[in-house]
Amino acid sequence: MKSGPIGIFDSGYGGLTILTHLRDRLPEYDFLYLGDNARTPYGNRSFEVVYQFTAQAVRTLFAQGCPLVILACNTASAKALRTIQQIDLPKIDPQRRVLGIIRPTVESLGTLTVTRHVGILATGGTIRSLSYPLEIKKLFPDIVVTGEACPMWVPLVENGEAQSDGADYFIRQRIDALLAKDEQIDTIILGCTHYPLLYDKIRRYTPEHIRLVRQGDYVADSLADYLSRHPEMDALLTRGATTRYLTTESTDTFRASAAVFLPGIPIHPRHISLTEGDPEDNA
Ligand code: DGL
Which H or E run contains 133? Predict the structure, then answer.
């Protein structure tokens, strides 16, 4: 296999909050970001559709030369990762790898909660998949997990309304609903990569003693650890310190919106279709 960049996939802009941490942690590597902005949000889509869209994205990133793809999207990690790892990868290319972001987040929990009561704020798809409670049960069976779906939060971010006054209503509503279900929660996982963009407002409406967990650092540490344990994969990753961007939407829209996530960083996205013909045709 030829060497290439680390592929980062999200339904839209949320994965950029993970990319930032990966670049800080692994600055010498090349990254190729793919946002399926034309079909975002994935949060309320069925298992089959999220799997189909995510599998298309992974195949596209492979065709663009990525030996390793990170699903920087909880919804895709919850609904598509296992099938892609177990069914698709052995057929496509057993040497390539696809990693998710739920497990690294869950691994961090052991030392974060004192009351052993944890809340999850995420998309409807992630909450309904029960991926977080199931993963947490495997590692920390004593932790009580309560989830709350926040269907309006991703649309607020994708539509540039993260800082608007109107966003406050929806944010407070979901935090209050979560805490009404379990008053002992002392740690809340922001289980959607879009949510760091709403962080200031989430912090404002969350009691001070509750810790908010953003995923970026944990995912970055976990990837660095993975590469140190898998030198055969590490050797396949190019190191030119570059980042390129692909979007399924208009490149002008992507450039303007991504600038909110990555202030001061020049972004020159390229349009790509995940559905028409061979992904290499678009290279
Ligand atoms: N950013 C994605 C996540 O982490 C979800 C966004 C969506 O609903 O498409 O779950």
Answer: helix 131-139
SS3 194: coil
Q: Given this structure, which CATH class describes domain 6-100+217-280?
A: alpha beta
Q: 214-227: buried (b, 16+ CB within 10 Å) or exposed (e) per residue?
A: bbbebbbebbeebb
Q: Which one, of 61, 40, 97, 69, lies nearest residue 282 by Cα?
A: 61
Q: Residue 276: pLDDT band by 50, 70, 90 thresholds?
A: low
* Tens-digit pLDDT profile for residues 42-75: 998 999 999 999 999 999 999 999 999 999 999 9
Tell if the pTM clears 0.85, that is, is over it.
Answer: yes
Pocket test for ligand 1, best of 9, 11, 47, 53 (most atoms within 8 A of CB): 11
Task: Please confirm, yes or no, whether 66 is among the known catalytic residues.
Answer: no
Q: Does the fold of domain 103-215 match that of domain 6-100+217-280?
A: yes
129 in contact with ligand 1, CB cutoff 6 A: no
The full set of domain ranges for the chain reads: 6-100+217-280, 103-215
Q: What CATH number does the domain located at 103-215 have?
A: 3.40.50.1860
